[in-house]
Structure formats: structure tokens, C-alpha cells
Design brief:
- This protein has about 375 residues and is an alpha/beta fold.
- The chain has two domains: about 130 residues, Response regulator (Rossmann fold, 3-Layer(aba) Sandwich); about 180 residues, Rossmann fold, CATH 3.40.50.2300.
- It has 13 helices and 13 strands.
- The strands form three sheets. A seven-stranded mixed beta sheet has the order 2-1-3-4-5-12-11, with helices on both faces.
- β1, α2 and β2 form a beta-alpha-beta unit.
- α3 runs parallel beside α4, α5 packs parallel to α6 and α6 crosses α8.
- The N and C termini lie far apart (about 85 Å).
- Pfam families: Peripla_BP_4.
- InterPro entries: Bact_Solute-Bind_Prot2 (IPR050555), Peripla_BP_I (IPR028082), SBP_2_dom (IPR025997).
- Keywords: Signal, Sugar transport, Transport.
- This is Putative multiple sugar transport system substrate-binding protein.
Length: about 375
């Protein structure tokens, strides 16, 4: 009797163990893995929420991990998601080149890789790229400065994103496309970059030439770095490079920091400063006249495009693309989303009426 009871107990334990392992295995599987660069910028937290909402009504599951500005953490996150059985990997890389090591591991497992917002470079392990037109972003910023400049000799302060981010090159290239003719004809005078000054008569810059300029004016996408650089630049110049100034700031976080520095200098009588991402804090700055504009990239559309691609892959369909980008190794098929310039004149129509933000989130909005 005791022997029979013991055999029954052992069989019961064995069955429960198998069921538990099976449950854990199926519960741990994820359809789409997403890796975002940092949780310290409002832009990426906003993207996280949009991604979660995108798959709410589907049978597919997703897990979102943040790299917190570390390439090593990014690779670890990708490995974690691979082990969870993902079929599609979406990555907004912290470092465009370093991200290749992680996505190559995914490709070895037959996982479809989608580069999100920032292009992963120097690897053939990228299947698709979902992006805003980064050249158009820079062109919109540069054109805004041109449209708001009067006469000649306007001091122009140039700032850029991180040199590790391919988008930083594209944004600056776009701005240079429209600003360079106006630098060459004397509308603007470069105030803070000897490298840009040396190249001011050249309409098209090589990657190396862009890199030299970015090396001088990079903010690393860090508001504190942007603040320090702006303070250093204003301290180094005389009154002839102050007065009414034009400032190319790469995104909203850096724009607010740079604007605060220029606003505090008594010899700066007026400034026009660009931005990007339509962050809530910067929209308040735009309303208050502290930041001139921002390039609105509707994250809702970008997320929809990325998740639409992922679902197509999961369903066995071929995702729709609208162009391609050379990542230094292959031409990556891409889907592009348009961008919109927002300033005081159209905050209401573009951001409130469209439902992107609520009016009661801001003060002083007419």
C-alpha cells in the first residue's frame, strides 16, 4: 500500500512539474521584442506607451526594454528578448554602429529586425527601417531660421545630436542643405564652429566633413552638455556675435537648455531657436515665446508603421515600404513618415485639435 502511494506521489509530482514547465514556457514567449534607448527622455517614454497600446487588441504580445544609454545593456536586452522566443525585434539604437552586434544575434535565430527611428549601421542584419524623414527634419529647422532672419551678418550658432547616432548626421545634413547658401551669401555668420566656417562654401559635405563639425558642436543629446557648450560659446565671443542670433538646436531637450542660456545673456537681444519632438515642456516654451519652433514627429504614426510592419511579418505578409537607406553595409528598405513644423501659430491646430495633447496640459494657450 505504501509502495503504491509512493509511486502515485512521484507520478503526481512529475506531472505537475511538466505542466509548470509548459506553463512557464508558453507564458514567457513574446511575439515582438522592443528595445528603446533610454527612459530618461520624454520622447521614449511616450513611445513606450504608444507601443503598448498598439497591440492591445491583437493576439500578439510584446515586451519593451530600455538600454539606458548603454550599448552593453542594449545587447543584453536583445539577448533577453531572443530567449523569450520573439519573432520580430524592433530596436531604436543607442549607438547606431554598436547595435549591430545585438541584431546579428537576432538574425542568426531567424528573427526579423526592424530599425526604429534611428538607423542601425554597418551590418546586413537589418530587414526594415521605420523613420521620419530625417533630412526633412533638418531642412525644416534650417528653413525656419532663414524665414526669421533679416538682413545680413546674423550670428548663427550650430548644435547637433550625438555623433554615435546616424540621425544626428542626417538632421545636420538637412539643415546644412538650406543654410549653406545663406551662409555663403552673408545672411548668416557662423559663430561657434571653426570646422563649419572652413566648409561654409561647400554645398555638399562628406560624412567625414559632417563628422568634424559634429565633433565640435555635439550636445550628445544631453541638455546639460548643451547648456555647457552654449555657455562656453557665448563666453568666447564678443558683442558682434550676439544681438539678434539664430540657433540650430537639434531637439527639444537641448533647445530648452540652450534657450535658457541665451536668454540669460544681456547682450543677446533676441534669439530664434529650433527644436524637435514636440515634447510637452517645449510646447509650453513655444507658447511662452522661449522656444521658437519644434518639428512635430507624430509618434502615433511611427508606432503604427512599426507595429504594422511587425504584424505583417507575423502574419506571413510582406510589409509595405516607401524607399531605402544605405546603412554602410546594405540598402535597408524603409517606410517614411512626414514631419510638421509647429510654432505659436499652429500649436492649437496641430497638437490640440489633433488630440495629441489636451489643452488643459498647457498655460496661456489661446
Amino acid at each position: 500500500m505504501k509502495k503504491g502511494l509512493r509511486l502515485f506521489s512521484m507520478l503526481f509530482v512529475a506531472i505537475m512539474t511538466v505542466l509548470l514547465i509548459s506553463a512557464c514556457s508558453s507564458g514567457g514567449e513574446v511575439s515582438v521584442g522592443i528595445v528603446l534607448p533610454t527612459k530618461d527622455e520624454p520622447r521614449w517614454v511616450q513611445d513606450e506607451e504608444r507601443f503598448k497600446e498598439a497591440l492591445e487588441d491583437s493576439d500578439y504580445t510584446t515586451e519593451i526594454l530600455f538600454s539606458q544609454g548603454s550599448s552593453a545593456k542594449e545587447k543584453e536586452n536583445i539577448e533577453t528578448l531572443i530567449n523569450k522566443g520573439i519573432d520580430v525585434l524592433i530596436v531604436a539604437p543607442h549607438d547606431a554602429g554598436a547595435a549591430g552586434a545585438g541584431v546579428e544575434l537576432a538574425k542568426e535565430e531567424g528573427i526579423t529586425v526592424i530599425s526604429y527611428d534611428r538607423l542601425i549601421t554597418d551590418t546586413d542584419a537589418v530587414d526594415y527601417y521605420v523613420t521620419f524623414d530625417s533630412i526633412a527634419v533638418g531642412e525644416a529647422q534650417g528653413q525656419y531660421l532663414i524665414d526669421n532672419a533679416e538682413g545680413t551678418g546674423n550670428p548663427l550658432y550650430l548644435y547637433a545630436g550625438a555623433a554615435s547616432d546616424n540621425n544626428a548626421f542626417l538632421f545636420f545634413e538637412g539643415a546644412w542643405n538650406v543654410l549653406q547658401p545663406k551662409i555663403a551669401d552673408g545672411t548668416f555668420v557662423i559663430a561657434n564652429s571653426s570646422e563649419a566656417e572652413a566648409l561654409q562654401d561647400k554645398a555638399e559635405l562628406t560624412r567625414d566633413e559632417l563628422g568634424k563639425i559634429l565633433g565640435q558642436v555635439t550636445t550628445e543629446w544631453d541638455p546639460n552638455e548643451a547648456k555647457n557648450k552654449a555657455q562656453t560659446h557665448l563666453t568666447a565671443v564678443g558683442a558682434d556675435l550676439k544681438g539678434d542670433v539664430s540657433i540650430l538646436a537639434p531637439n527639444d531637450g537641448t533647445a530648452r537648455s540652450i534657450a535658457d542660456v541665451f536668454a540669460s545673456d544681456g547682450e543677446v537681444t533676441n534669439y530664434v531657436v529650433t527644436g524637435q519632438d514636440a515634447e510637452k515642456a517645449s510646447i509650453q516654451y513655444v507658447i511662452d515665446g522661449k522656444q521658437s519652433m519644434t518639428v512635430f514627429k507624430d509618434v502615433r504614426t511611427l508606432v503604427e508603421d512599426a507595429m504594422g510592419m511587425a504584424v505583417d511579418v507575423l502574419d506571413g505578409d510582406t510589409p509595405e515600404t516607401t524607399g531605402s537607406y544605405d546603412n554602410g553595409s546594405i540598402d535597408v528598405k524603409a517606410k517614411q513618415t512626414d514631419v510638421i513644423v509647429v510654432d505659436q501659430e499652429n500649436v492649437q491646430s496641430e497638437l490640440i485639435d489633433s488630440g495629441y495633447y489636451e489643452a488643459d496640459e498647457f498655460e496661456g494657450l489661446d
